[in-house]
Amino acid sequence: MAKRTIVPIGPYHALQEEPEFFKLHVEGETVVHLDIELGYNHRGIEKLSESKDFEETVFLVERICGICSTSHPIACVQAAEDAGEIEVPERALFIRSVVGELERIHSHLLWLGLAGHFLGFNTIWMWAWRFREDVLNILELITGNRNHYGMMKPGGVRRDINDTDIPAIRTLLEGLQDPIKMFRDAVLEDPLIHARTRGIGILSLEQAVAYGALGPTARASGYDIDVRRDHPHAAYGMVEWDVITTQNGDVFDKAVVRILEMFESIRIIEQCLHQLLIVRGPVDSDPPFIPPGEGVGHYEAPRGEVFHYIRSDGSNRPVRHKVRAPSFMNVPTNRETVLGETVADATIILAAVDPCYCCTERMAVALNSPGGERLWGAQDLIRMSCEKTWKLMDETGLCGPRPPVFDD
Amino acid sequence: MNYTINALTRSLNAFHLAGSACNNCDIEILDALTPKYDLERFGVTLVGSIRHADLLLLSGVFNRKSAIRVKELLAQAPRPYLVIAIGGCPATGLMFKDSYNCDGPPSEYIAIDAFIPGCPPKPEAMISGLVKVIEALRSGELVPACLQQPQQEPDYVCQ
Amino acid sequence: MSANRTINRICGALGDHVLKLERKSERRAYIEIAPETVFEASSVMFREIGARLQIATGIDTPAGIEVMYHWALDGDDCVVTVRTLLSRTKPELESIAKMYPAAEWIEREIWELLGVAFDGHPDMRHLLLDDSWPAGNYPMRRNHG
Q: Which chain C residues touch B64 with a CB distance below 8 Å?
């Protein structure tokens, strides 16, 4: 076997440049094996949580991930509430869903932008993130921050939504319908995107079940699970919405599921805002402490189910706080989806599970093979992916998705 | 004043190094490049390799695994370069500083030229911080820390 | 309630393996079993009942190392936690990764942070900690008085 040389070429995720060793060996153009190495992000959060009290631990888990930054707090407070059998006022449930669904929209737009970037459509990246700013504006209006909202606490939420703010939120939400429709049409109808994503990186239903896949990764394969519907919490049992599933499990389906979910999120938010004008009352039941007990809280983050387990001994600090992010279950599915695919497609396949590195603890990807050794970095993989797109453009004469022309 | 530094301030190539970050600062840095804030109008662009970088943006608390990497990477950075710590984590470690997997935040072992605190700092804060850094460089008030110390040799040489 | 029916089915299938059953609420049940029966219990949950393994939690308690397998019954709005207690001196379990690939990383994490040995695991090595982490040092273990 040839001597293996390690080259610190650079980051995996080009837009999040982390110091990583990127070891890449391939056989021809095909991926024959995938080895995933984590550890660059492990900060010992579960242990740190044991030294914090229950309100502080919510701020800690918020910073597990910047993108699903309200998913962890919601699951965490639900675990504490489950442990202590604590009631949450109805108004707080609606506010939790509003913030959670806004996070879902911004996270899916973020993913859409990155997927566009990896495929070589930087316009999609810039446009998706530009509309994401509107969502962040709504979040800033409600919570005071674009990310890391500090909204959740055991027993309810920290801030109420003023009636006077609701019209502004509604206007901003309505302004999102057209752009998301544009993205939906761009993805569903563009033949170049079809060529790059259909039939690529397929995860079958059996594989999705065997790996315990979650979220859009699972639903794209026909695995019909959604914590919001299966284990109703927050306001999800009180409003009308649909779970989006598709059957093929390829990258295209994963994109479709995420885009269509954004429409459902807007539907949920609008209904919750309507309820907030009717349902009055406190937003916090203000429990003095969490009594001894144990509880489980789970929530459907943009990437899938986030799971928290808390054991309390009445000392107001968790005895044990277990955190499991969805990417922990989704990232191993890459072993099945990327095998047999070409290196040019590797980036988009690996990105299709929407890995949240910080949640999962980062990974360096080594694609192993006997013999044949070429060393590539993340930038190279992305470049190869873009080159495949340009080649397809030349061969087919198609130009890829274009932004709409606004006549006003 | 130093001609190189002056030329540098017109077009800073930034290499973004995230070590054990929650990625919020990372997303906000990228947000600063998107149309609403558009850092590129100040001449700042992201580059893919540290060897092309004038500006190193650090984010995250850098656990044991990442800390090794960042020291190696810094040794490869061509001088002069600036190191800017984005967010609270590289400055103090925030709530992660007592973790069993973190020895100490980067501010303890890397010479950092500027801090842009926040959790995360908004893109406006980053732009404001960058503008202050650029002005301080031009006025001579800020001298890159890398120029004040001898070049570090990496612990081992990578091929 | 459908959760009740499913939990009764689980207890029926597990039979004598069930040492203790606690119905904390409509949506939460905790079943205690002996360590030797973990593989069979997991097989019942996954194959027979069709539950979904969410994660396994390990805790170092004064009584021993407790490992809890959290199973979601998605159709019944219920989470059933199957727990077992291992000795602190020699915590060992049979790996369920062969039957359920989702458990591979889960078991690696519990080994690395708590020192539980999973017999038959296909690829036991560090997941989150650096390879240079001192052997035998398990960060989530505690000093019990």
A: 130
Predicted confidence at residue B71, as pLDDT, reads 83
Longest dimension (CA), chain C: 51
As a whole number of angstroms, the distance between CA B95 and CA B104 comes to: 11
| H-helix or E-strand spanning residue B84 | strand B82-86
Is A7 inside a domain boundary?
Answer: no
**With a CB-CB cutoff of 8 Å, which residues 47-86 of chain B face chain C?**
64-65
SS3 C111: helix
In chain B, which residues have their Cβ closer than 8 Å to the Cβ of A14? 48
Chain B interface disruption, residue of C130, C132, C138, C143, most B CBs within 10 A:
C130
Residue B85 maps to a domain = yes
Quote the number of domains for chain A: 1
Does residue C58 sit within a domain? yes
Taking Cα atoms as reference points, which of A343, A301, A354 lies closest to residue A114? A354
pLDDT of A376: 57
Residues of C in contact with B101 (CB under 8 A): 129, 139
Whether C22 is in a domain gets the answer yes
Please give the residue range of the domain that contains residue B14. 3-148
**Complete edge-to-edge strand list for the sheet that includes strand C64-73:** C20-25, C28-32, C78-86, C64-73, C52-61
The pLDDT, as a whole number, for residue B23 is 84
Looking up residue C53, the CATH number of its domain turns out to be: 3.30.460.80
What does the pLDDT read at residue B72? 80
Assigned domain for B156 exists: no
CATH number at residue B92: 3.40.50.12280
Residue A198 lies in a domain: yes
Residues of A in contact with C106 (CB under 8 A): 328
CB contact under 8 A, B65 and C130: yes
Up-side HSE of residue A321: CA atoms within 13 Å toward CB? 27
Query: Based on the structure, what is the number of domains in chain C?
Result: 1
**Total structural domains in chain B?**
1
Q: What is the pLDDT of residues A313-323, one digit of tens each?
A: 989 899 999 99
State the smallest CA–CA distance between residue B114 and chain A in angstroms.
Answer: 19
Q: Residue B20: closest CA among chain A residues belongs to which residue? A: A41
